[in-house]
Fold these 4 entries.
Entry 1:
Amino acid sequence: MRLRASYITKNFGHRAIVKNVTIAVQPGEVVTIFGPNGAGKTTLIKILATLLRPTSGQLEIEGTDAIAHPLQVRSVLGAILHEPLAYTALSPYENLKFFGRMYGIAQLEQRCTTLLAEVGLSRFVHEPLHVFSRGMTQRFMIARALLHHPSVLLFDEPFSGLDAVAKEFVLRRIAQERQNGKGVVITTHSTELGYLAGTRFFFMVNGELEEVASKDEISSETLLHLYEDRLINRAPSA
């Protein structure tokens, strides 16, 4: 088991943002969580990435208690969040070298050069991140997430703001990491892209997570209809 979360709840004041979420991710599995804005998806991803502490519940990553030992499990986690998690005044190469030293990566310069080539940034390795487009930044964030060979990848809205070429790149990279045995969790509100990327599907509405089906059990059209029904039937009352 790559990741197991049990009865995770997160409250901000008296408001429950994440409500008793239970989810498990196996090696070579891409779990897609569909949900509208404000559903609690980003909060859940930050909890899984050990960046937020849950109000209650348990979280194990590669068999380690991630709530009690967050620093210990971060070496096996790679995350793409809305924030770049990098120094935007520095180049992608400088960022990767900085973070690589923190992880103690062997043959670091070669690793940085290889990763930046894989994500299509070879021509921009010495440009500061703050001049990058949304798609270029997303490519860099994939390299940043993969730098230390993590076994668990957490992607929050990885397709947001990307053009068609960049979306196709992200889909290919997710498929490649799944084939490499990584456990992947992505959140999205796009049923089309989430279906293409995922192997198992969940809905998250009003902080509650519901397992729907695996990919071999449901078509993209049926998934879309179910999702639309959930948004209508489970919308909060005014």
Entry 2:
Amino acid sequence: MKYKAILFDLDGTLLNTLDDLTDATNAILGRHGYPLRSREEIRSFVGNGAAKQMARALPAGTDDVMVQQCLAEYKPYYQAHSCIKTKPYDGIMAMLEELKAAGVKLAVVSNKPDATTKDLSRRHFGELMTISLGDGMGLAKKPAPDMVHYAMKELGVTAAEAVYVGDSEVDVATAQNAGLPLIAVSWGFRGREALLKAGAHTVIDTAEALLELTR
């Protein structure tokens, strides 16, 4: 294989989490009497972690105390409701299994809370991932390179031996900041046009295409 390790974003890359993210966000907004958000609005809010997602979902001008209260309520609610509608995108499981069988080390690096990231990875991917990590480990969130560098150290690989896979502008910047090549996926939360505009050079449309690029 071309790479010894592949590091994946989670939301919009491996898992379609958008419906559960939307439902959980709206559950907290509705609890406090705020207007609910559409699926497409939530799509545009995610990518930079739960704190920014909630701040973006709340009405403009909401004071920080309320933002923090809603965030504190959202995290456990989403943790408990994160696997209701969420599922892997088409072809993801077969792709991961083939990579694993070929000896490629696989990792998830997400801006989701660490506990939720680990839980979703375990539920959907079992032992396929060597490491899964999210926000809450004392490392700067993506697009800072810290989480990626931590994962690479745990995997025992260098930047020359790894590739990063993601679906958003945050992932484009993360790969650049970490010194890794990027394979961007068009099926996620942002789409091909936004990825190309953000500077992605390689954008694929199917999980099978990723296999071809990594052989």
Entry 3:
Amino acid sequence: MTIFFYTKTDAYGEFSNFSKHGIEVDGLWWPTVEHYFQAQKFEDKEYQEKIRTAHSPKQAAELGRSRKVAIREDWETVKEEMMFRAVLKKFKTHPKLSELLLFTGNQNIVENAPGDYYWGIGKNGTGLNKLGEILVSVREQLKI
């Protein structure tokens, strides 16, 4: 069986990076995983702070997708590790989320994001589902 999620109001919407489950990383509180992840694209500390304090995860994502500020040169090689780090922190920070993820057993987890063929499965289901894979990896870590 497969668990599909996408928006924060869907079943398993807590798995979304937009869910309001903040994390503390390097002494800073990030309102959502999306805020943290988007800010990590940049070396500019002021721009990172602008993203961290964005009013919503949607606004944080929009700021993170802007190319008015240069993204870090190594982004493509570190982005999956950054995502894993943030998602693991989210589930370790929020015990009820950890329980929910562990409750999924060995089921496949899929981000059913129609516009995202890297982190999700895209409109036609051919995407890489990297976020789903990370959630499965985090679930394995939590079992230890």
Entry 4:
Amino acid sequence: MNSKNAVITGASRGIGKKIAETLAKNGYNVIINYKNSRPRAEALKNELEAQGCVCDIFEGDVGNYIEAMALIDFCIEKFGSIDLLVNNAGISEIKLFTDITPDDWHNMISTNLTGVFNCTSCAVKEMLKNKSGSIINISSMWGQVGASCEVHYSAAKAGVIGMTKALAKELGLSGIRVNCIAPGVIETDMMKGFTPEELSAIREEIPLNRFGTPEDVADLVLFLASDKARNITGQVIGTNGGMVI
């Protein structure tokens, strides 16, 4: 096994999948968390193991504290400790505020914000014992500036940003760094609902005139988790092509 152990939530596809691949190929023992996509998680595990990487999969809803605790415990039991937690699991939904139901709100907050609390709460207990660790939360540029027709999504992602900053202040003296990445428009399955015309209009609003890729986010995670970022904590770093400055 390698010397560093990482848990990535929501890692069977999209940004989470690329984060898992990047970390595994750069010397991390990786736990790939998923909720519903077992075939994709198994395919990723097989692909990485075929390349000599060390990884495993774990099914669990991070919005459920018991399942989040089981995820972190699984990493500790398998690899001995947890050095890096990447809170990536998330859902999105486009709806007028007046159409958002209490269930819509609960589901959004449960996955996108409560899930971050659950996993972090469980991981920090182990990191405090070791006096070291890194937590990287995946938020969104809409958590920074808000998005029309995505009020519940924006609120949850803004909560992640606030949690990042506060926790970084609390855990710094214990050798634990907490940072946040706020992606812009990233080319994932979440963009399938847009027409070519809508995508073109969105691209025109981006100064770099390009959509981000999962690799852009994964490379930033790898940097923030490394010793090269040893003096960086409590930061919200955007990868949005200049759409939010």
